[in-house]
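Q: Protein A?
A:
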Amino acid sequence: MSVSSIVKRGMEAGSFIRKMFEEGQRLRAQYGADNVFDFSLGNPDLMPPPEFRKVLLEEAAREAPLIHCYMPNAGYPATREALAGHYREWLDLPFQAENIIMTSGAGGAMNVVLKSLLEPGQEVVVLAPYFVEYGYYISNHGGKMVVVGTDEEFQPRIGAIAEAIGPATRAVIINSPNNPTGAVYERPVLDALGALLAEKSKQTGNAIYLLSDEPYRELLFDGLKYASPLLSYERCICVTSNSKDLSLAGERIGHIAIHPRCPDAALLTAAMTFCNRTLGFVNANALMQRVVGRLQGVTVDTAPYQRRRDLLCKGLSELGFQFNCPKGAFYLFPKSPMADDVAFADFMKDYRVIVVPGSGFGGPGYFRISFAVPDDTIVRSLEFFGQAAKKLGMKA
C-alpha cells in the first residue's frame, strides 16, 4: 500500500463538509453561481475590521533587523505579553507572557496541546455534535476519542461525562459557541464541569485537562457575554484563533492560553513550545503575530451574523423546520425532516440547496446550515426550502 492505512481509512470516510462543498461546485457549474444556495462551509465572509487594514499596512512597511526571520518558538514576546494583558484585564487572572503560545491557527494549537498531553491509548472525551476534525487530531497523537452525547439543547450532560471518564481519560474537549449547533455554555454548567474534573482527577490519580476550543467566542448574539471556562477550572487550556473574530481564517493565526494557576503551567508551556517546533508549525506567521498583538479587543461586527440568523430562523420556522435558535457562531442545526439525514442532504440538492448532514458531526438526524453567506442568499433560498418542505408534506 502506498499510503498509511490510517490515512487511507480517513480519506475514505472523508468529510461531509468537503463532499457537499464539491457538490455545490458541480451544481454551480450546471446552474450558475446565483442559482445555487451553498450553506456547506463555515467560511467567515465579513471583511476584517478597518483597524486590521491600518495595522497591517503599518507592520508591512516596518523595517527592522530580523523582522521577517525566526522568533522564539512560542512566538514574539511582545505579542504574547499583549495577549496576556488582554486575558488579565478580561478575566482578572494573573496571566503572563509565559502562559501564551502563538500557533498556526486553532487547529495547529489543538494538535500541539494533544501531542504534549497524550500517551498512546489515552482517552479524550468529546461532546457530540462536535467539530469533525477532533477525531483525527486525537488519533494523530495516539489517543482514543470517547464520544458523549449532549441534551436536547446541545448542552453538556454532566452525569454522562462522569460515566465516560475512567483511568485512561486525559482530557475533555468543549467547544462553545459550538460548531455545528451554535449552542453556548454558560457559567453554571462550566462550574459543574470544572468541579467534576477536579473530583475525577483526585479519584483516578491522573490530571484531567479541560481543552476549550474557542474560535467563535466573540460571535455571540442577543447581548450574551462569553463565560470563560478559565474561571471554572485551573487545569484549563484554551485554544483559539483569529479566524472568526477578525475574519482572518486564511491567515492561520491563533494561540494557546494555559491557565496561570495550573499546577504544571511552566512544564506545559515548555512541552507545547517544543511540540510547536517538532510538529512542523515552528512559528506562527511573523507578520500576523505583530498585527494581532496590536488588535486585542478588536472584533468584527456581529450584527450581520445575528441578522442572518434571524432571517433564517424565521423563514425555516414558518416552513415547519424544528431547531434550537443558535446563541453564537454562525451555524443552525435543525432536525432533519427525513430519518436519514444523509439522504435529506442528498434530497436538498434537487432544490439546489447545499447543507451538511449531521452525521458528519456525530449528530445523526440533524443537518448543518452555515449562515456565513450574504443575506440575499438566505432570502432567495427560502423559496427552495419551501418547495422541499412541501414535497415532504411539511406545509400545506
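Q: Protein B?
A:
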Amino acid sequence: MIVVPKRAGLARVLDDLAMARRLRRGRFDVAIDLHGGPRAAWLAWASRAPMRIGYSIVGRTWMYTHVVERAAELRARHSVENQADLLGPLGIDGCDSVREPMEMADDVGARERLERRLADAGIHHRDPVVVIHIGAGNRFRQWPAQSFAATSAALVLRNTGLRVILVSGPSDQAAIAAVAQEARAEAGAAGARVLEGRYDLFELRELIARAAVYIGGDSGPLHVAATTRTPIVALFGATLPEVSRPWRDPRWFTEAVDAGALPCRPCNQRHCAPGDFRCLTRISTDRVVAAAERALQHWEEHRGLSVDGPVMTGSRA
C-alpha cells in the first residue's frame, strides 16, 4: 500500500512528481484506475505500467491502454459491479455478491477486548444488542440526530432486555453524547439500556457481528456490517440503495429505508437544491423502528443457525 499525500498548491505538484518517480521505480505491470479523477488518471499514466485500465472519461482516455465504458445509464447500478467492469481487460468477467461478498478477516484479539467491554457493561452473551452508527461522511448521508435518539428510545421501550449501543467516528464524539442523552431522557427508566462507545475498526466489526441488528447510513461502517451476517437496516439519503447497498449474500437480512423518488435524488452531494435535505428528513422514525423490529424478529427466528441452515430472506428496498 502506497499512500498519496493530500496537500494543496505547489506542495501537491511536488508530491505528485515524487509519487510518479516512485511508481515508475516499482515497475508495475498493471495499473487499474478505480477513481477516474484527473489526479488518479495522471498517476496511472505516470506509473508507465504497460497495461493501464480506466473508464472512458472525456480528456483522460489517452492516459490508459485499455478503456472501459461507463455510461450514464449505469448510474443506478451497484458501484461494485461498475468497478468490476475494469477487470474485463484482464479476462475477469462480472462480480457476484454470493460468490464474492464483502469480506473482513476475524480478529481474535478484538473479539476478546469486545467481550470484556460488554461484560463490564453488564451485557451477557445471549442479550440482544442493536448497534446504531450515527455518523456519516457528509451532511447528505446524515440522518438527523433527533431521529437517531427517538429510534433508540423506541427500541428499548418496545423490547425488554434489548440494549442499544451508539457508535460513531472520532469526529462525532460530542454528537453521540448528545444523542445518547436525548435517547435516555425519552426512554425514561429504560434509558439506562442506551449505551455509547468508541471502538477501533476491528472491535467495531466484532461488535456488529455480535449484534442482533445494525442500523446506519451509507458510510464506511455500513459496509463493515456487510462483512457479517447481522441483519442490517440501511438508511439512504442522497445516495441510492441500488448503487450503495451492502454487498453481501442476499440470504442475510438487509432492508433499505429511504425517502423514495425525489427530483433531486441522487445528487452530487455538494449542494442541496431544495435546501432542506428532504432526502433525509422525510425518512420517518416510525419507518426505521418498524424495519428494525422486522430485523429483530428475523434475528430471533434464525440466531444460531449456520450458513447452511434455512435461507434467510429479507432483502428489500
